[in-house]
Amino acid sequence: MRFQVCSSALATAVLTVGLTGAATPAGAADRTPFLDRLHTVSTVASTVPENGDLNPYGTFVIREDKGDLHRGNILVSNFNNSVPPSGEQGRGTTLVQITPGGQRTTFATIDPNNLPGPCPGGVGLTTALTVLPGGWVVVGSLPTADGTSATAQAGCLLVLDSHGTVRETIAGDGINGPWDMTAVSSERRGGSERRSELFVTNVLNGTVAAGGAEVDQGTVLRITLSSEGDGPPKRVATTEIACGFPERTDPAALVVGPTGVALGKDGTLFVADTVRSRITAIPRALTRHDSDGIGKVISEGGSLNGPLGMTLAPGGDILTVNGGDGNIVETTERGQQVAVKQINSEGSPPGAGALFGLAVDLDGDAVYFVNNVDNELDVLH
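-> structure tokens emitted (381 positions)
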């Protein structure tokens, strides 16, 4: 079920909180922010595979051993190909797997001419990356023909098995430039059926036609997948749960629009509104059957500066990385910005849209993140 009308483009409330002079919310327990426990940035490995793909975007820590996937390793998707000097955006076809010790292997090289289903425009792997139970890898594709936004097409979600073979594509029904994603899975009918809910941001609704002008048409879709036995998960429903996010094409970044998403413990979905430097909250994300517009703005400005990737800290705080200045920011679920750190690698220019995907390690004491200026996976620990 999908609603095509954006029912509420404006937020119901705005809370703007900076780091300076921010008060602790009434009744909140005193605790040390997660980022204040981490002190060192180290390089884990280069993300460049054998074919030379560049611009790492998606980052996911693998939770179970399955096939060629190994628990605790980090999966990374590449958005650019290797055309000099910096590759063409929307043409990267590789997923690499990296051990915490820095050993890199190529998990998959996807042939856009040999897909099992439709993916309008081909393959250009985005920040939208997750691994579902059973070792099913789902990654977004926002493809271009020549690295420019003028040739960008709708793309799809690609479903790969645990050996790196594309088994299915999920396209259409609102999927239009899938940019980032988070997911949650559960078992039903005594464990015989597994359900997964994908929350996917889309950034191409009206952007290409607008020719660089800002349009308020970015969406978040909840895509329900079902699987039984050893077969790949199949889409059973698509629901638009948020819409009206600002987005625009950009010569340097290809497109700028709603990026990071993270699901809170109470079912609230948090969204990084990159264009407006704010975080919004969509309530009842797992169960709602309508769009909440952009939801409620819980934090805006302050240390947020073009937030891109998003994940949750072990205590539930929201972690975002800035495209504008290379900082990572910690924000409570109530919207208070409680910590900020510069995490660009030494020698990298601050900002420059270098930071996209990030993920907390399985021990909950470090954050992996990609730096696409240096084409490497780094860790804050």
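The chain has one domain: 34-380.
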